[in-house]
Amino acid sequence: MSERSASVARATAETEIEVALDVDGTGESDIETGIGFFDHMLESFAKHGLFDLTVSCAGDLDIDDHHTVEDVGIVLGRAFADALGDKSGLERFADRRVPLDEAVASVVLDLSGRPLYEFSGEFSQEYVGEFTSVMARHFFRSFAVNAGATLHVDVEGENAHHEIEAAFKAVARALDDATRVDDRRQGVASTKGQL
């Protein structure tokens, strides 16, 4: 584990989650949420962001996937916030455009400390396996709020699997860019002196 790593746990009446994150990893992951497609998206997120990521979640899937997806976003966002500390030296801003066959996802990101989330687009199918497509939007909102990030995601395409996967990959690539350290940067990338 590098210096930029964090472990966060959260237990509620709906979910019990443990996340371990190494921002300076190699893309290794061990994911178990009980939702196959969501596991696949988090594995893709780790691989394309070069984050080492472990996620263990026991949720109330007998109800639906909402609490599991939302709460994993919360805990993963907190893990990024903890791992990045005061954000000294970070690039801070990033944008990525990622295609997957007919689908394209565009992401603009600022690790500003000011959470804001905007989403544009519609998912072409209501479900991908047992995953409710609109929960991808909710995941990114939960992540952005808890990571303290401004995150804009735009998706277009004809296949929800491709649209959602392109979004996860684009967010991962943007995070990889924004979390890079520039040795020339003294402190944080802000005239305020803090983020």
UniProtKB/TrEMBL annotation:
| One matching Pfam family | IGPD
Give me any GO biological process, just one.
L-histidine biosynthetic process
Please state the pathway this protein functions in, per its UniProt record: Amino-acid biosynthesis; L-histidine biosynthesis; L-histidine from 5-phospho-alpha-D-ribose 1-diphosphate: step 6/9
Q: Which Gene3D superfamilies match?
A: Imidazole glycerol phosphate dehydratase, domain 1 (3.30.230.40)
Compartments it resides in: Cytoplasm
Q: Which SUPFAM superfamilies match?
A: Ribosomal protein S5 domain 2-like
Catalysed reaction, written as an equation: D-erythro-1-(imidazol-4-yl)glycerol 3-phosphate = 3-(imidazol-4-yl)-2-oxopropyl phosphate + H2O
What's the domain of life for this entry?
Archaea
Q: Does the keyword Amino-acid biosynthesis apply?
A: yes
Molecular function per GO: imidazoleglycerol-phosphate dehydratase activity
Keywords of this entry = Amino-acid biosynthesis, Cytoplasm, Histidine biosynthesis, Lyase
Q: Which GO terms describe its cellular component?
A: cytoplasm
Extract the InterPro entries matched here: IGPD_sf, ImidazoleglycerolP_deHydtase, ImidazoleglycerP_deHydtase_CS, Ribosomal_Su5_D2-typ_SF
Enzyme Commission code(s) on record: 4.2.1.19
The UniProt entry's sequence similarity note says: Belongs to the imidazoleglycerol-phosphate dehydratase family.
Q: Can you say what this protein is called?
A: Imidazoleglycerol-phosphate dehydratase
What gene is it encoded by? hisB
